[in-house]
Design goal:
CATH architecture: 2-Layer Sandwich
Distance between the termini: 44 Å
Largest sheet: 4 strands, antiparallel
Strand order of the largest sheet: 2-3-1-4
Order of helices and strands: EHEEHEH
CATH superfamily: Transposase IS200-like
Shape: globular
Number of strands: 4
CATH class: Alpha Beta
Structural class: alpha+beta
CATH topology: Alpha-Beta Plaits
Helix content: 40-55%
Strand content: 15-25%
Length: 131
């Protein structure tokens, strides 16, 4: 059965979620998170999208992005760069992320603020648990 087409956001803003395959960790060291952020910056330079918020947890990621190109192209740039680096560093092969990324279109300013608060709150809670 073919997969469903993504719902396009009229604002160009999306809540993006990525999870490790089998809910495994995608960040094993702090260096990994820094590398992922570098991959975002490199992808931003090419795709000119905006990062409105993000939270990197060991086994999943939340990002709030405003696209300028098709969002899938930007996510592919980020993930392909990171997965290649991660697999080489940890001498592994294969998929790192479970399925394709999830995206929720953000269609109102009120919902954007709700998602942004959610991302920041889970980041604060996650950091307090980790430290």
């Amino acid at each position: 059965m073919p997969r469903q087409a993504r719902v396009r956001s009229i604002t160009g803003i999306y809540h993006i979620m990525l999870r490790g395959i089998d809910k495994r960790d995608i960040f094993l060291e702090n260096e990994d998170k820094l590398k992922f952020l570098e991959c975002i910056e490199r992808a931003k330079a090419k795709g000119n999208f905006k990062v409105l918020g993000y939270c990197l947890m060991d086994n999943h990621i939340h990002m709030l992005l405003k696209e300028s190109e098709e969002i899938g192209t930007s996510i592919k740039r980020i993930t392909v760069g990171y997965v290649g680096w991660h697999n080489k560093k940890y001498d592994r092969t294969g998929h790192l992320f479970q399925n394709r990324y999830l995206s929720e279109p953000v269609t109102t300013e009120e919902y954007m603020l709700t998602v942004l608060r959610y991302i920041h709150i889970i980041g604060i809670l996650y950091d307090s648990i980790e430290n």
